[in-house]
Amino acid sequence: MSNLDRQAEPAVCGGRGFVVAEPVRELLSPRRVPLGESTEVRRLLPNLGRRMVGAWAFVDHYGPDDIAGEPGMQVPPHPHMGLQTVSWLHEGEILHRDSTGSRQTVRPRELGLMTSGQAISHSEESPRNHARLLHGAQLWVALPDEHRHVAPHFEHHAQLPLVTAPGLTATVLLGTLDGATSPGTTYTPLTGADLALTAGTETRLPLDPDFEYAVLAMSGEARVDGVPVLPGSMLYLGCGRTRLPLRAESDAGLMLLGGEPFAEEIVMWWNFVGRSSEEIARAREDWTTGTRFGEVHGYDGGRLPAPALPPVPLKPRGRVR
User: Fold this and answer.
1) What sequence ranges are listed for the domain Pirin N-terminal (predicted)?
2) 88 vs 194: CA distance, rounded Å
3) Which of the chain's ends, N or C, has fewer CB atoms near its CB within 10 Å?
């Protein structure tokens, strides 16, 4: 997944200084950003008020979009470093290609997980013969310093563990929830789960009090700890919770994102996660000159050019602005 914003803003994120150490209810509104030729996303992280939730550093929600007779998602080859990308669909398909040679169609409630490590490039597109609707989320997970130079690789997991309760089915896409652990590779203590609730359901989801959490609303109407959340919004919950009350006013889809607060400060610009301005500048130069990030074969079109770097050195901004 690419950040296609041509006015890419740098941010230094992470560090524990701004972690909310107690339960809160902070509703985050999205910023609308064009993605490729015909898709618009609602960006929840980084947000004006908050930049990370655990190691989750980037969250886009898109759709449901009617793409019948349209190309749908068309994201040209572009680079990543220092992060993992997570593709998660409720409707539609995405064809993934990357510079390690991976080629995989990801379908609803299947995990597409790409670890960029030191350098990778990939493309994402709706297949030529695609479903009418496209609806999903694209997310990034920042890699800690000790693992951010691992060899790049892609994972596809069609079968994921479930946690069930009356009126609730939780699919664990990353990390662990209520004793169920995803096969997806993680490098920090993390949780990512898709929550499907039937209308009228009231339940409590077990949480780790050492994690900070947020809930992304995908569809329907639900209350999270008493707060109404509408599709395309995200509720930040802080730390210190052992249970999360949920109520579905209609059939609803949510995503639970959580993790141990990320201890390191990171510089995030365009599609790179690094630790300094100089590192980001080197990555941009390497992509521009065609070195280090490899090639994506099979995409019908050219590579995505990098935006211009800001005229001043990147400065720390912390976990919250």
Assistant:
1) 41-141
2) 9
3) C
Tell whether 285 is covered by a domain. Answer: no
pLDDT band at 16 (very low <50, low <70, confident <90, very high): very low
**Residue 291 is assigned to a structural domain of this protein:** no
Catalogue the E-assigned strands of 108-264: 111-115, 120-125, 133-142, 153-157, 162-165, 168-177, 180-181, 190-197, 202-206, 212-219, 222-224, 227-229, 234-238, 243-248, 252-259
Tell me the residue type at 153.
H
Residue 236 placed within a domain? yes
Question: What is the SS3 assignment for 231?
Answer: coil
- Specify the long-range contacts of residues 224-232, CB closer than 8 Å, at least 24 apart: 224/254, 225/23, 225/25, 226/25, 227/25, 227/27, 229/27, 229/254, 231/61, 232/30, 232/42, 232/61
CA atoms within 13 A on the CB side of 231: 18
Provide the domain limits for residue 93.
Answer: 21-259
pTM of the model: 0.91
48 φψ region: left (φ > 0), alpha (ψ -120 to 50), beta (else) = alpha
**Which H or E run contains 33?**
strand 31-35
Whichever domain contains 148, its CATH number is: 2.60.120.10
Start-end of H helices in the chain = 277-289
CA distance 201 to 252: 10
| The pair of three-digit structure tokens given for residue 51, joined into one six-digit string | 């930049």
**Domains in the chain: how many in total?**
1
* Token output for 108: 């609803």
Q: Is residue 54 part of a domain?
A: yes
What integer is the mean pLDDT of 39-60? 92
Summarised one tens digit per residue, pLDDT across range 178-204 is 999 999 999 999 999 999 999 999 999
Strand partners, 170: 163, 195
